[in-house]
Amino acid sequence: MRIVDNRADLAAARSAATGRVGVVMTMGALHEGHATLLREARKNADVVLATIFVNPLQFGPNEDFTRYPRTLAADLQVCEREGVDVVFTPDPEVMYPGGEPGVRVDPGPLGDLLEGAVRPGHFAGVLTVVHKLLCLTGADVAYFGEKDFQQLTLIKAMVRDLDLDVEIVGVPTVREPDGLALSSRNRYLDDDQRVLGLHLSAALRAGQAAAAEGADAPAVTAAASAALAPVEADYLELRSPDLGPAPAAGDARLLIAARVGPTRLIDNAPVRLLGKV
């Protein structure tokens, strides 16, 4: 496994690569969810490239950029175990050599909904760094987790709308046995907060169960909201798979963000609306 931390060495590693190149972009603090992404890349690409970079552009002024977990030595062990060929570990000066960029990728109206409504500017920071990393790595395919479903949706839209020559693959959310979605921020939770965090996945299951019994979109949302009740929600919404308004029948997505103590968790799940009266 080759570890590079600058543009010249990344370019050299990329030029030496032959065949289909897959990239997994991370902010480090790797867990089984990231490992699953790396395995998907390993199965479907000839060369696997991972990036580890805590992107300051996507953190708001009162968010957890300074305390976000940085565990590079352990992360590199995960990468080696999963058969990664190249790991790119830039610092902000390498990613943004001219300082904070004045030109960023505008996520459009979808960037102002859900996560974007709570975290203004977040998705401009996400899309900007993803675009830069796609250019720097020259990847043929990039893998992202469905846990960050709005992020995945916006990345697919960016690739489509800007004619980027890369395939974007979404990988299902990985969960703990008790249902908690894996997240690097789960390590912030104490024992009591972790129990409260289980209400997110319980709310998703309640919404899915209501839909399976023929509930319409408002009733599905109400069932999920009741199961989430002990936790302070930033939002709980049922939307179409492209995050437009929920359909009367067919595939939909239930999305939740909630605060558990000082920690903010997100989760989502597919829902099938039967369209019964």
What does this structure look like?
- The protein is α/β, with parallel strands linked by helices and 277 residues long.
- The chain has two domains: 2-171, HUPs (Rossmann fold); 184-271, Pantoate--beta-alanine Ligase, Chain: A,domain 2 (2-Layer Sandwich), CATH 3.30.1300.10.
- The chain has nine helices and nine strands.
- It has helices at 7-16, 32-44, 72-81, 92-95, 115-118, 122-137, 149-161, 191-212, 217-228; strands at residues 2-4, 21-26, 47-52, 86-88, 141-145, 167-171, 232-239, 250-260, 263-273.
- The protein has a six-stranded parallel sheet, with helices on both faces. Strands 7-8-9 form a three-stranded antiparallel sheet, covered by helices on one side.
- Strand 5, helix 7 (149-161) and strand 6 (167-171) form a beta-alpha-beta unit.
- It is globular.
> How many strand elements?
9
Ends distance: 57 Å
Strand order in the sheet with the most strands: 1-4-3-2-5-6
CATH topology of the largest domain: Rossmann fold
Number of domains: 2
Overall pLDDT level: 96
Percent helix: 25-40%
What's the short story on this structure?
With 277 residues, this protein is of the alpha/beta class.
What is the topological layout?
Elements lengths: L1 E3 L2 H10 L4 E6 L5 H13 L2 E6 L19 H10 L4 E3 L3 H4 L19 H4 L3 H16 L3 E5 L3 H13 L5 E5 L19 H22 L4 H12 L3 E8 L10 E11 L2 E11 L4
Parallel strand pairs: 1-4, 2-3, 2-5, 3-4, 5-6
Antiparallel strand pairs: 7-8, 8-9
Helix pairs in contact: 6-7, 8-9
